[in-house]
From TrEMBL:
Segments crossing the lipid bilayer: none
Family: Belongs to the TRAFAC class dynamin-like GTPase superfamily. Dynamin/Fzo/YdjA family.
InterPro entries: Dynamin, Dynamin_GTPase, Dynamin_GTPase_CS, Dynamin_N, Dynamin_stalk, G_DYNAMIN_dom, GED, GED_dom
Cellular component GO terms held in the UniProt record: membrane; microtubule; phragmoplast
Protein name: Dynamin-type G domain-containing protein
CDD domains per UniProt: DLP_1
Coiled coil location: none
Subcellular location: Cytoplasm, Cytoskeleton, Phragmoplast
SMART domains noted in UniProt: DYNc, GED
Dynamin-type G domain: residues covered: 31-299
Single GO MF descriptor: microtubule binding
Keywords: Cytoplasm, GTP-binding, Hydrolase, Microtubule, Motor protein, Nucleotide-binding
Length: 606
């Protein structure tokens, strides 16, 4: 039992140290899964006196109005020997042997968090008490419920206190210790009212009756203690606290416990209940019940921790590693991110990721279709053929074949191929830019650093623009080469001018008849189609060589060169991670540390 309760004590301390207070947040919480006993009661219900009776020490602040303004997580540790001392988690190096100083430190720590205006804070104070006179137990002392605000408090104080109390007792792993004075009607008990709302079946509520000795003469608390006034799953427990007179006379807890035992043993109405009455029985019963609850919850806690660890590790992996502090580390980080981006980009081009197939579509469909759609009819109409042939002849008609006319006609047709060639270059350029955008979005590490993402994007686009310009030059050179030098063998293989059944003298002396011009037009079109067929194969090769190949080889080369020449402050600006992301990563790391520690602690005990 001691191991299990000590285990939960350790985990609760770790939760608070690493910022897990069970509040609603986007982070997995361990606190909410840990069984705990929350002490609930109205002001002046005797709640503080019950806790001091359980501990056997005067250590809680006293006074009028709202004294408990922060949850107090009280962890009791039974030890051997005669020494008794206390430790606060916010000041772990100091061991308090004077419990009057413990009372003062609770008040001072409350003031540090809430100020002097008697406001409420949901952040717990952690107090551990080590003594041979206690049982292993953890109790959470919550602010006393009230119905009105006193002077100096905000109007919302009533609701604020209830919100804090509910944040603890609404959790299914919370055991509720409802403190109610016996000299008041249970129907008006603040503790019973709020407990009923969160635990209507009374399955996790323990009722404690205080001030039994202060009831009017002729009345008793038997009906309440027997559960006839209000039934809970567990028996009610009555306690007799020290009176104000006893406190003023400095009656110690050992004597007070003896007086309490004597009261129940010698009072006729309660004599038969004496074996389950008193603060000592309350402490032992709560300790035993807490141990059984912890034991039943351990498998679920282990499962929750394993799931939370997997979620935390996955999100930390997605957020990436924290930024290195030194210049070399920062430069290495940038280079590694660029390498990851470049690898993803190449995977798109090489077919391991989608997108590269669009380039082949340009070569296999878009470019050939554009070539087929070229209209050579206007260039090769009878009027245009006659015009160019006669112009090329000048004042002397050609003797055998109109060579200059052929050249002019072919050039006028081939020039129009420049349009589809440039369009193919631009289409591939657009695809390469789109793949850059995809690769950037798929490089998770770039999501950390908006400035670096923009810089890499701009550098890649600038490189692609340069590659496009070079590709256009090379591609258009292929077209211009076809214009500047014709394939002689094509014309040598053409049939003679003499047509079947024709008169050879017509083609020699009547140079410009329609039949002759149509033959020229047909020959030119055949040659142009041959050139188109050739360029259909060579232009894609030029584009791949100048754009795709270079994009794979040198996309970020200029960026790397410029990066090496930058000062450290400019390099640091590239790693301007969102502060919210940095904070999130730090919180995730703390929460992961908590869950791993909890997993190790539970494994060691279980």
């Amino acid at each position: 039992m001691e191991n299990l309760i000590s285990l939960v004590n350790k985990l609760q301390r770790a939760c608070t140290a690493l910022g897990d207070h069970g509040e609603e947040s986007a982070l997995p919480t361990l606190w909410d899964s840990l069984p705990a006993i929350a002490v609930v009661g109205g002001q002046s219900s005797g709640k503080s006196s019950v806790l001091e009776s359980v501990v056997g020490k005067d250590f809680l602040p006293r006074g009028s109005g709202i004294v408990t303004r922060r949850p107090l997580v009280l962890q009791l540790h039974r030890i051997n020997g005669d020494r008794e001392y206390a430790e606060f988690m916010h000041n772990p190096t100091v061991k308090y042997t004077d419990f009057a100083l413990v009372r003062k430190e609770i008040a001072d720590e409350t003031e540090r968090a809430t100020g002097h205006k008697k406001q409420i804070s949901p952040v717990p104070i952690y107090l551990s008490i080590y003594s041979p006179n206690v049982v292993d137990l953890t109790l959470i002392d919550l602010p006393g419920l009230t119905k009105v605000a006193v002077e100096g408090q905000s109007d919302s104080i009533v609701q604020d206190i209830e919100t804090v109390v509910r944040s603890f007792i609404e959790k299914p792993n919370c055991i509720i210790l409802a403190i109610s004075p016996a000299n008041q009607d249970l129907a008006t008990s603040d503790a019973i009212k709020i407990s009923r709302e969160v635990d209507p079946k009374g399955e996790r509520t323990f009722g404690v009756l205080t001030k039994i000795d202060l009831m009017d003469k002729g009345t008793n608390a038997v009906d309440m203690l027997e559960g006839r006034s209000y039934r809970l799953q567990y028996p009610w427990i009555g306690v007799v606290n020290r009176s104000q007179q006893d406190i003023n006379k400095s009656v110690d807890m050992i004597a007070a416990r003896h007086i309490e035992r004597e009261y129940f043993a010698n009072t006729t109405e309660y004599k038969y209940l004496a074996h389950r009455m008193g603060s000592e029985h309350l402490a032992k019963m709560l300790s035993k019940h807490l141990e059984s609850v912890i034991k039943s919850r351990i498998p679920g806690i282990q499962s929750l921790i394993s799931k939370a660890i997997a979620e935390l590790e996955a999100e930390l992996h997605r957020l990436g590693k924290p930024i290195a502090a030194d210049a070399g580390g920062k430069l290495y980080t940038i280079m590694e991110i660029c390498r990851m981006f470049d690898g993803i980009y190449k995977e798109h081009l090489d077919g391991m990721r989608p997108g590269g197939e669009k380039i082949y579509y340009v070569f296999d469909n878009q470019f050939p279709v554009a070539l087929k759609r070229l209209q050579f009819d206007k260039n090769l109409s009878m009027e245009n053929v006659r015009k160019l042939i006669t112009q090329a002849d000048g004042y002397q008609p050609h003797l055998i074949a109109p060579e200059q006319g052929y050249r002019h006609l072919i050039e006028s047709c081939l020039v129009s191929i420049r349009g589809p060639a440039e369009a193919a270059v631009d289409a591939v350029h657009a695809i390469l830019k789109e793949l850059v955008r995809k690769a950037i979005s798929e490089t998770d590490e770039l999501n950390q650093f908006p400035t670096l993402r923009v810089e890499i994007s701009n550098a890649a686009f600038e490189s692609l623009d340069r590659m496009r310009n070079e590709s256009k030059k090379s591609t258009l050179k292929l077209v211009d080469m076809e214009c500047s030098y014709l394939t002689v063998d094509f014309f040598r293989k053409l049939p003679q001018d003499v047509e079947k059944g024709g008169n050879p003298t017509n083609s020699i002396f009547d140079r410009y008849n329609d039949s002759y011009l149509r033959r020229i037009s047909t020959n030119v079109l055949a040659y142009v189609n041959m050139v188109c067929s050739s360029l259909r194969n060579s232009i894609p090769k030029s584009i791949v060589y100048c754009q795709v190949r270079e994009a794979k080889r040198t996309l970020l080369d200029r960026f790397f060169t410029e990066l090496g020449a930058r000062e450290i402050k400019h390099i640091s600006k590239l790693l301007d991670e969102d502060p919210a992301v940095m904070e999130r990563r730090a919180n995730l790391a703390k929460r992961l540390e908590l869950h791993r520690s909890a997993q190790a602690e539970i494994d060691a005990v279980v």
